[in-house]
Amino acid sequence: MTYFSGFCLRGESELFADWLVESEYTVAGFSYGAIRALEYTLASTRRIDRLLLFSPAFFQTRKERFRQLQLEAFRKDPEAYRSNFFRNVADPSPLDLCPYETQGTIEELEALLYYRWDEEKVRRIMERGTVIEVFIGEKDRIIDVKGALEFFTPLATATYRFRKAGHILRNER
Question: What are 112-134's pLDDT values in tens digits?
Answer without folding.
Answer: 999 999 999 999 999 999 999 99
